[in-house]
Amino acid sequence: MALAMSLRIEAEPNAFALAPAETALVIIDMQRDFLEAGGFGEALGNDVSLLNAAVPPCQAVLAAARAAGMLVIHTREGHRPDLSDCPPAKWERGPPGKRIGDAGPMGRILVRGEPGHEIIPALAPLPGEVVLDKPGKGAFCATDLDLILRNRGIKALLVCGVTTEVCVNTTVREANDRGFRCLVIADACASYFPAFHAAALEMVKAQGGIFGWVAPARAVLAALPP
Ligand code: TIU
């Protein structure tokens, strides 16, 4: 049972008030394809080990959100096996032989149903939690996320996952424009580029919180019931 009371997270640029019953934890793309060798992230030329620092903070906020009865949404970036939902402009930017749909050590890169597309075991969804497949960077593009959130009366999102400046930031911008209040959990996000991670967090909270709020996982844990 989600709590009806209003809680307060110490955040920047100022405190973030939330009611757990009206708040969802959105974990963006914590997939093997981004965090492990042989997937999409590495195919793009990245050092995937940089993302693993976000796993323990994600685990901690996931456990707290479950205990508080909050709606939990896990997103996955990926495409249909026939790639009919993969824009050519996205596909052609991969290096030949390592493009979306090509065979890799974890199966076909960024294709739904393949091992690399799965969420990492440390953050495995529980039965009943929403697993949202998305073809783009933003979780609202060509998905039913907006419908799911509004049907549940969700007004605020706690957002974490990878990568900070790509799928996390795109999703927060989409959510903000749709009227959801977003708090980005700083250390539960990560990027292949530490400077982009830092800049992406700055962009969210600048100008009085132009896209939302930013707080560390420990501030979220301090606010939610133990
Ligand atoms: N490349 C990169 O930083 N990110 C992605 O392609 N997708 C997500 O961020 N999930």
Question: Can you describe what's shown?
Answer:
With 226 residues, this protein is of the alpha/beta class. The chain is 31% helix and 21% strand. The protein is built from eight helices and ten strands. The strands form three sheets. Strands 7-4-3-8-9-10 form a six-stranded parallel beta sheet, with helices on both faces. A two-stranded antiparallel sheet has the order 1-2. Helix 6 packs parallel to helix 7 (194-209). The protein starts with 6 loop residues before the first strand and ends with a helix. It binds tricarbonodiimidic diamide (TIU). Tricarbonodiimidic diamide binds at residues 29, 34, 44, 77, 137, 162-163, 166-167, 192. Tricarbonodiimidic diamide binds next to helix 6.
Features:
globular; six-stranded parallel beta sheet; binds tricarbonodiimidic diamide; two-stranded antiparallel sheet; 8 helices; 31% helix; 226 residues; alpha/beta; 10 strands
Sum this structure up briefly:
The protein has eight helices and ten strands. It is of the alpha/beta class.
Q: Name the poorly predicted regions.
A: none
Helix content: 25-40%
Q: What gap, in angstroms, lies between the N and C termini?
A: 15 Å
Structural class: alpha/beta
Q: Counting H and I runs of at least 4 residues, what is the number of helices?
A: 8
Largest beta sheet: what is the strand line-up?
7-4-3-8-9-10
Mean pLDDT: 96
Main sheet: strands, sense, barrel: 6 strands, parallel
- Could you give the count of β-strands? 10
Order of helices and strands: EEEHHHEHEEEHEHEHEH
Rounded to an integer, what's the Rg over CA atoms? 17 Å
